[in-house]
Amino acid sequence: MDTNSLFDNYNLNGLQLNNKMVMAPMTRSRSNNPENVATALTAEYYVQRATSGLIITEGTFVSSEAVGVVNVPGIYSKAQIEGWKLTTTAVHEKDGKIFAQLWHTGANSHPDLHGGDLPLAPSAINPNVKVFTAEGFKDSVMPKEMSLEDIKQTIADFKQGAINAFEANFDGIELHAANGYLFQQFFSKNSNTRTDSYGGSVENRSRFLFKVLEELKQVVDLARVGIRFNPSLHGMMGINVDDETIELYDYITNRLNAYGLAYIHLLEPFTDVSANQNAIPQVAKHFRKIYNGTIIINNGFNKEKATKIINDGDADLVSFGVPFLANPDLVERYKTDVPLNTPDQATFYTPGEKGYTDYPIFNH
């Protein structure tokens, strides 16, 4: 038997996973209630998918200032903590494991989501993205450059978000440092033009991440903390690669070896970057040579590609997004080679059960 099978158990820093298939974080915008609380419907959605080795939740906002999408659950109020307990309890009853993804959208937000106030970001640079508001998609605006006090408060918000996640009985947390959101806005030269200790050099642009980790270390076990990165993101979500991008991510990854994290969760390029000397065309292969811990890889994998990347040794776990969205029983379907359900894109972000908890489960 192939010992690197997708369906083998995996020891994630002492947390036993039932297989090497991870449910990737996906925004679903089902928390359409006044306090943005995860509900019993949220719990039903995740428990349907509890056969995955690990679930990483949709991004959950660490503060009201972090919000950048309508109807997304937060983790900064008592009601939100209690709401998430419905999900963690249900998943654990099915012997599943679940991490909360902690999220701050930074510039990728809109005043409509902040009572008219400008979103906060490392620099006052409009990412020129579409923002999902209560009135539909709107163009982003120039954000407010964060003061040092704003940065200090945001670091504290991530610390409290981590405390809250463990209070809600999550098995761990993932910092969302990918896809053009706040952490990546600090990393990237085109979104960070600061001249203080949070801008300029590779070390300075990485500082926000390591300040957050130093604070988390005081209150949670870093063996239960993962980080998601998208190093080759280019021409999307307000981010471009530049002449220091590879140096920056190599620097971050090297430093992370000392932190004993649960994992790093990497995305392969969204677009063809093979001709771009500032981008990394094979992300997992590149960082496997640098990082000593667990690597989760993501981006459009099917069963065959996932098995190959694990067997090749370039990653330890593979995360699946849309396949899990449309196939609650994805693990079983892959095991038995049953055809997959087709995802309904029209219901990705709409309220209610349709396209959320009503995908058919295969009965043998």
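(the above was protein one; protein two follows)
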Amino acid sequence: MKTAAAFMQRASSPTVWLVAPLLLVMVVGFDLPLMVMLGQSFVDATGFTLARFREVFEASAYLKVLASTFRIALITTVVCALIGYPLAYWLRRLPTRWQVVALALVVIPFWISILVRTYAWIVVLGNAGIVNRALLALGLTDSPVSFLYNELGVIIGTVNVLLPFLVLPLFAAMLKIDEQLLRAAESLGASPWTVFWKVFFPLSVPALAAGGVLVFILTLGFFITPAVLGGGRVSMIANMLDLFVNQMPNWDLASAISAVLLVVTLALFAVYLRLTRVGEPT
């Protein structure tokens, strides 16, 4: 009775009624379509079925797209880590006022449309772009280098978009590392190189791993960058879903592929939450 009374009291509070419209929008706009999508992937005219999932995992064309997506996501994550970790470490060592300037330069791309930033790479890396014209002028190549309309172009554009998602949280985690631990190691005779590898780097690994998982998850759902910089030659899951939904259409198969992507994303998100908890100070 007390539990029911407490529930009724919370339900009648003004705060609940303020949140109710937002909750209704989330249920109708997100949860309901998601449930319909999952139901369509598991149910057909005869009832429960796994036929659509068997079709996804038995068809070599779909498996190639899945493999291509995960390969691009993995390469993008590694490249972001190789570029982002030194950048975050350099930001940490800057004076405070220069940190603000450098962080502003990292954040500025968020103010520009992804579509605009993606098309900008065509100007830079196209056959008549800035890079190829410079290579030809310097005599380093006899013909334009194919930077675009392949996996290389997609990876370059994706890294450009997602690098801040790794740098910013990693930089924040590095700032939380206690300087006294580093000074204690130095006072015991450790060299700066030893202090970094034995003390600083292990403490920053959870944040680096969490940022890497976040970049990997975001890459799985990329659509605009592969469509523009891939030139229709690089197929990823989002582009395949667009094909099944808008051109074929095959909603049942699109639902099954979406369900697979959802499961993978949720699993990776659970890993991300685990890593962020590990990285938090106790």
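Reviewer note on protein two: The domain at 67-279 is CATH 1.10.3720.10 (MetI-like fold).
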